[in-house]
Design goal:
Order of helices and strands: HHHHHHEEHEHEEHHHHHEHEEHEE
Structural class: alpha+beta
Shape: rod-shaped
CATH topology of the largest domain: Beta-Lactamase
CATH superfamily of the largest domain: PAS domain
Distance between the termini: 119 Å
Radius of gyration: 60 Å
Helix content: 55-70%
Number of helices: 15
CATH class of the largest domain: Alpha Beta
Strand order of the largest sheet: 2-1-5-4-3
Length: 508
């Protein structure tokens, strides 16, 4: 019976003993426990993330990745440990069964012809199992018949008793070597359970030599102290391997995620900064758009005011003189043929004088409207030109105190300074009689400062309307170039002051 038994053990060793369903069944408890733990942790993480502030990508990965890695390690470790335990148990059981079969097989009779053991056979089994290495190795031994009858038991009290065949016994009669470790739960194994020792339970089929049929099953419990230690280290190394692999993968992914998180954080900060800058620029553009719109409206109003003043100057000056000349043309002295020649000459002289005055005033008005060639003119020369034109037009004197800073100035800036001096002197002449007129210019803190003053009686700024043509025009012209405009007045005189950057924008 040794050869067929060895063949059976080899088949059991290669075919895997319990199939994959048996392995899954053995690990079902671990799977269910791990799944429940996973669900509890997922619920806990969801509640944590729901209560806390938004986490960074790295923090989210630390929580979720760590949880998934732990659950994966638990599941894989449980499966691997179960597979290794099953393999180690099968291999140890096959070796023990082969050893026991080699010792017991010569003693047993032909079990197909005899369903009972004779007294000499039982005595031989008692001696074989009660002494020597096999006696120390096996805690108990039973020989089963197919109907669940114990043909022989090392514990003589069980011999001849019949029990319902358990699943392991049925599988053994089906030709499968069955082995379990520390799972003594059979009704007939009370003594083994009470032993308190680690036991390897083995069901080995007994085959008929020539037919290979299973004629009986041997059940024995091996004292597995060494096997327990071996199995413990096998499980430990399996768990360590799975834990190290999981940790290495987790650290690798953490490195990638942390690097990506830092890049995303820096890009997010840069993007936020850009958004803030763009928001500020949009607000500035909106403010500038409003200022430009208001300035455009004021420019239109100022131009209309200039046109009205120009019309008034033409109406009150040249137009009156021309009208006077036209009236004189209708004088009877000129029309009557018998008028004395002296009277006619006097009237014609008056008409010529009126027309000459009208022409002079028109030229004076045009002279105030036409700008000199200012592209290549320095600031001091430009101010001097405006002051001399005012003196020629009004017959007054203007005191100059100019310091030419030789600072680069745009065409728009030069036009602004020229019109400022021109309009300020004109206002001084109209409202203060041109008393003590003076113009000064200097470079202060990198800015051009121009002042026009007089020693007239001054005026009340509160009585001046904000849309007054002269001052409003000066203020808008200076501020449109980014400069500043100020008015100081008292009973001792009035001073108009403008400050302009040399490199101001050219809006000509």
């Amino acid at each position: 019976m040794s050869a067929p038994m060895a063949e059976l053990h080899r088949d059991a060793d290669h075919s895997g003993g319990p199939p994959l369903a048996g392995i899954v069944s053995a690990g079902r408890t671990a799977w269910l426990s791990a799944w429940q733990a996973f669900r509890r942790r997922v619920r806990w993480v969801a509640e944590l993330l729901g209560r806390s502030a938004p986490q960074s990508l790295a923090a989210q990965f630390m929580i979720a990745g760590g949880l998934v890695s732990f659950v994966t390690m638990t599941l894989v470790g449980a499966v691997v440990a179960n597979v290794i335990e099953d393999g180690v148990t099968r291999n140890a059981a096959a070796a023990t069964a082969l050893y026991v079969d080699s010792v017991i097989a010569p003693i047993l009779p032909d079990m197909q012809k005899s369903e009972f053991l004779t007294e000499p056979v039982r005595h031989a089994l008692d001696e074989t199992l009660g002494q020597g290495a096999l006696g120390k190795r096996l805690l108990s031994f039973r020989l089963w018949r197919r109907d669940g009858t114990v043909l022989y038991s090392k514990n003589g009290a069980l011999t001849g008793k019949r029990f319902d065949p358990n699943p392991s016994l049925q599988r053994a009669f089906a030709g499968t070597l069955v082995a379990t470790f520390d799972q003594v739960d059979d009704a007939e194994s009370e003594a083994e359970r009470d032993s308190g020792q680690p036991l390897l339970e083995i069901y080995a089929p007994v085959l008929q030599p020539w037919s290979g049929q299973v004629v009986a099953v041997t059940e024995f419990y091996e004292i597995a102290t060494e096997f327990k230690r071996t199995l413990f280290y096998a499980r430990l190394w399996a768990w360590l391997a799975v834990a190290c692999a999981t940790l290495a993968l987790y650290l690798l992914l953490s490195t990638i995620v942390f690097r990506g998180s830092r890049i995303i954080a820096s890009q997010s900060a840069a993007l936020s900064s850009r958004v803030e800058e763009l928001s500020e620029l949009l607000a500035q553009n909106k403010s500038l758009r409003g200022r430009i719109q208001r300035a455009s409206e004021r420019v239109v109003a100022l131009n209309e005011g200039y046109l009205r003043r120009l019309g008034a100057d033409l109406h009150d000056g040249p137009a009156q003189l021309v009208a006077l000349a036209a009236m004189k043309l209708d004088d009877p002295v000129l029309i009557a043929a018998n008028s004395p020649s002296e009277d006619r000459k006097r009237e014609i002289g008056d008409i010529r004088l009126s027309l000459d005055d009208a022409l002079a005033e028109i030229r004076s008005i045009c002279g105030g409207l036409i700008l000199p060639h200012i592209e290549t003119v320095q600031t001091a020369e430009l101010i001097t030109h405006a002051a001399r034109a005012h003196e020629h037009r009004t017959g007054t004197k203007v005191r100059l105190a100019l310091s030419d800073p030789q600072a680069p100035l745009s065409v728009s800036g030069k036009i602004c300074i020229y019109r400022f001096v021109q309009e300020a002197l004109s206002n001084s002449y109209r409202h203060a009689g041109g008393v003590g007129q003076a113009v000064s210019s200097a470079l202060n803190a990198g800015r051009i400062v121009v002042e026009v003053s007089d020693t007239g009686p001054g005026f009340d700024l509160g009585q001046i309307r904000r849309d007054a043509l002269g001052l409003a025009g000066l203020r808008e012209r200076v501020k449109s170039l980014g400069g500043s405009f100020a008015v100081e007045t008292s009973r001792g005189g009035t001073t108009l002051k403008m400050v302009l950057k040399p490199d101001g924008p050219d809006i000509s």
